[in-house]
Design a protein that fits this description.
Strand content: 15-25%
Shape: globular
Structural class: alpha/beta
Largest sheet: 6 strands, mixed
Strand order of the largest sheet: 1-5-4-6-7-9
Distance between the termini: 57 Å
Order of helices and strands: HHEEEEHEHHEHEEEEEEEEEEEEH
């Protein structure tokens, strides 16, 4: 499964470095998937998450908090059914379908990524997560094997565009919305923002865009003017209509020369980095929500031993306060979120976390901590969305008074 994930990540990187391919261009290479009819997003089954349902977002997010001294406490979680804003999520490459583009039937892989990356925002937002016909792991395996399948990237984008348009027409009703994506999902959202949001009237409804695990071009020393012309990078949790973006690497293992993240093409352009632990700059503590049994990518992955002596942990997530900090770094290696693990061999808590991409037992340094880009800062991101929600609603109330 790690090898399959590597293929998935390779696609996300390649998509970020190439221009969108039209359906006509795809057809000159090979046959596109047979089912290219538009999805009807009025049908509930075409959404992983929608408000008021028992669906992929209605899950157990209970967390075991692990103190440095090994003490374990439980943290419960509840969604807010009266959340005043919305969140719209596009998930990363996860589909195991055998076709080049996925079908519209949710498998365990789509459900698992909702648990890891999106459901926790339900404490702040009404949750909207469309299924879409993303480029699959099968297409990537074929590409690596030299037998490329014609994955239709236009189909992928158009599905998300159709879902977004349906949401705006039937669900939004003038509410503020946070866009959230990771990897392939971030790439699709970048295109969506560029094409139909940036500088358009609908931008007024965008609270922020969390574009994680991707390369977002910005001019060196500036906050806007690269991928987007009107949505700048965020520097405060009270700032709205702005972007949070980063690709995470261990501080002691920065992006190597062949890294797929932290670098962009173009003279004087850098990959945007905003530190969710310290948006104003500098270093800050990460509030991670990590999988209690590891990344969950491989069934062969060894379950972490979180404390010594070992204790049974029966919650799906763990949190390790005080163990992780992060800082945006821009140097000869690239522009990236440097994550430091503060270990103490003398205490009872584990001295490391899982999250590296590993193939055949070897860490792949060019991927950094891509597997846990979202998880490593989940608590920070949820807190930022909470503060941005208040700032957005306060600004709208003030504008109505004027």
């Amino acid at each position: 499964m790690f090898r399959e994930l590597l293929f998935a990540l390779a696609l996300c990187a390649s998509l970020a470095l190439t221009a969108p391919v039209t359906r006509a261009q795809n057809q000159t290479v090979a046959s596109v998937p047979a089912s290219t009819a538009k999805n009807d997003y009025a049908q509930g089954e075409n959404w992983l998450c929608r408000p008021g349902r028992k669906d992929a977002c209605a899950i157990d997010l209970t967390t075991t908090i692990i103190a440095a001294n090994g003490k374990l406490t439980r943290e419960t979680w509840t969604a807010n059914p009266k959340a005043p804003i919305d969140c719209f999520y596009v998930y990363p490459t996860v589909s195991n379908d055998p076709t080049p583009n996925s079908d519209m039937i949710a498998g365990p892989e789509e459900l698992n990524v909702i648990r890891a990356q999106f459901a926790r925002f339900g404490s702040q937002c009404r949750l909207f997560a469309p299924l879409y016909r993303q480029v699959t792991l099968s297409a990537l395996r074929a590409l690596i094997a030299g037998r490329p399948m014609a994955a239709d990237r236009a189909l992928t984008y158009n599905d998300v565009l159709d879902a977004w348009n349906y949401y705006l027409e039937h669900d939004n009703q003038g509410r503020g919305v946070v866009l959230i994506g990771h990897s392939q999902g971030s790439f699709v959202l970048i295109e969506l923002i560029k094409n139909v949001i940036d500088g358009k009237a609908v931008q007024a409804r965008i609270i922020s865009a969390l574009l994680l695990g991707t390369n977002l071009p910005v001019p060196r020393g500036k906050d806007v003017g690269g991928a987007f012309q009107h949505l700048p990078l965020c520097h405060s949790a009270k700032q709205v209509q702005c972007v949070i973006t980063y690709a995470s690497f261990r501080a002691n293992a920065p992006p190597p020369s062949n890294s797929r993240f932290g670098k962009v093409a173009g003279e004087n352009m850098v990959s945007g980095c905003t530190n969710p632990a310290a948006l104003a700059g500098g270093s800050g503590p990460l509030h991670a929500y990590l999988g209690a049994r590891g990344t969950g990518v491989s069934s062969a992955e060894k379950v972490p031993s979180w404390v010594t002596p070992a204790e049974s942990i029966d919650t799906p997530f763990v949190s390790v306060p005080g163990m992780l900090t992060a800082q945006c770094v821009s140097d000869e290696h690239g522009s990236y979120l440097a994550v430091t693990v503060h270990s103490d061999p003398s205490d009872s808590r584990t001295d490391d976390i899982t999250g590296d991409v590993v193939t055949n037992g070897k860490v792949q340094p060019d991927w950094g901590l891509h597997l846990i880009d979202v998880s490593v800062a989940m608590g920070n991101l949820v807190d930022i969305v909470s503060q941005q929600s208040k700032a957005y609603r306060s600004g709208h109330l003030e504008s109505k008074r004027q």
